[in-house]
Amino acid sequence: MKVIEHLRQAKGTLLSFEILPPLKGRDIRSIYEGIDPLMEFKPSFINVTYHREEVVYKERGGGLLQKIRLRKRPGTIGICAMIKAQYNVDTVPHLICGGFSREETEDALIELNFLGIGNVLALRGDAVKNEGHFIPERDGHAHAVELIRQIAALNKGVYLHEEEQEAAPTDLCVGAACYPEKHPEALNLDIDIAYLKQKVDAGAAYLMTQMFFDNAKYFAFVERCRAEGITVPIIPGLKPLTALRQIGFIPKTFHVDLPQAFAAELVKCRTDAEVRRVGVEWCIAQSRELRAKGAPCLHYYTMGRSEAVREVLGQVM
Ligand code: FAD
Q: What total of structural domains would you count in the chain?
């Protein structure tokens, strides 16, 4: 079933997760280990992230360095097909513009369609490490809106370079990303929301937020989107903090602020266990408020750690 159908048929707040493909060389069982503890909460769908290749340099002796392009977490589409078959739950593969030509994008979309995976989260992706800004592939998409337009065209049976009148349309429900605290490259939130509206007008049936820790920012963002004519469901993304090192990297990596009441508790923490206690409590409070105020779905970023999400859900659902 499509994410938008789940949302339309929902009688209350739904639940969903995001998982990462395992590191290259790891067993598929690590995926089951992450999902099994969460299935009792009956998620409506599970998202699987897409990881672009990275550039790494390997020593080859004699002072020579070999430049290698390497994908550390391949397998997004296969994992989606496997989870759907194994758990009978809908899956949402993430698909990015970075590293894909339009033809390669089309191939991936055809594959999803053949596998009966009726969903996709359409993203631009970030710049490759060591590149200052995002550079699209030659004949690739520069922004998520272009990818969404390509999917919308395929859903009408319009393929690239295909003159055939009777080409079979795909049937993909497309979601897009949004940022209650603004995308880091956007000049301001108004401009970011204007581009967001383009993604919705192009065919995004729902939006999914970057993680945030201050519900007031989500509610204010939803209100601003509504005022700009964005009427689709906006799914909040949540992450329980569980480790000391996250206090440093989460705000920097995801460009989000921690509200003072939360930050004041976190700075007192000396161990991962303390951060986890404070982080889980905060996420429970966030989830309860979002649910009470009618959020369409609570979407949890597991980032490979489902125990903390399980603890939150035990108190919330
Ligand atoms: P866009 O919508 O293209 O926006 C990027 C920037 O360009 C914004 O500043 C926007 O304001 C601006 N912009 C948008 N359209 C235009 C236009 N037409 N002209 C000029 N400027 C424009 N990354 C991954 O690599 N893999 C993942 O699996 C992944 N999953 C994610 C899931 C969620 C829910 C979220 C919120 C993010 C995810 N990301 C993922 C990160 C995402 O790829 C980055 O945040 C990326 O920098 C932006 O992607 P986007 O789709 O929002 O891009």
A: 1
- Ligand 1 in reach of 34 Cβ (< 6 A): no
Higher pLDDT, 157 or 163: 157
Asked whether 145 lines ligand 1 (CB < 6 A), one says yes
User: Parallel, antiparallel, or unpaired: how do β-strands 45-48 and 90-96 relate?
Assistant: parallel
Nearest-angstrom CA–CA distance, 198 and 143: 11
- β-pairing, 65-70 vs 206-211, is unpaired
What's the pLDDT tens digit per position in 102-116? Answer: 999 999 999 999 999
pLDDT tens-digit series, residues 186-200: 999 999 999 999 999
The CATH number of the domain where 192 resides is what?
3.20.20.220
Domain that holds residue 33: 3-316
For the whole model, what pTM was predicted?
0.97
Q: Which ligand 1 atom sits closest to the C-alpha of 199?
A: 2
- DSSP string over 191-232: HHHHHHHHHHHHT--EEEEEE-S-HHHHHHHHHHHHHTT--S
CA distance 6 to 16: 11
